[in-house]
Design a protein that fits this description.
Blueprint (H helix, E strand, L loop, with lengths): L2 E8 L9 H13 L7 E8 L17 E6 L9 H16 L6 E5 L8 E2 L2 E2 L3
Parallel strand pairs: 1-2, 3-4
Antiparallel strand pairs: 1-3, 5-6
Length: about 120
């Protein structure tokens, strides 16, 4: 069930590469060990003019990627760091960004609170 939202900060003249969502879905599916059709990815661009950090003066080469992951069940606390490391590398490579610019947020578990086509996700 993983649903992955990927937001890339981009230059004003930059557009997202064709097929990026599909490549990210494959990369994320491999990290999660998902069978075909079970990892969904949505990709959005955020213009750099619509991104800021406190303290001002962004580095000229700073174009972060924000990833939000919703899974039915989260990995155990012992397994989460390994998954984060693999996902960070997979997203960085696929998006052409340095791993240190990839930021991942895990949403609370979706089991029992997410529905697809009117059916609750129970596992």
């Amino acid at each position: 069930m993983p649903i992955v939202d990927v937001e890339l900060v981009v230059r004003s003249e930059e557009s997202l590469a064709p097929g990026l969502a599909a490549r990210l879905a494959e990369a994320c599916g491999q990290v999660f060990g998902s069978p075909p059709g079970r990892t969904w990815v949505k990709v959005r661009a955020i213009l750099r003019t619509r991104y800021a950090e406190n303290g001002g003066n962004l580095a000229a080469d700073l174009f972060p990627v924000f990833v939000t992951v919703l899974k039915a069940r989260l990995p155990s606390p012992a397994d989460l760091p390994a998954e984060v490391a693999k996902l960070t590398v997979a997203v960085a490579q696929t998006c052409g960004r340095p791993p240190e610019h990839v930021h991942i947020i895990y949403a609370p578990e979706g089991q029992g609170r997410v529905a697809f086509g009117g059916e609750m996700v129970l596992e």
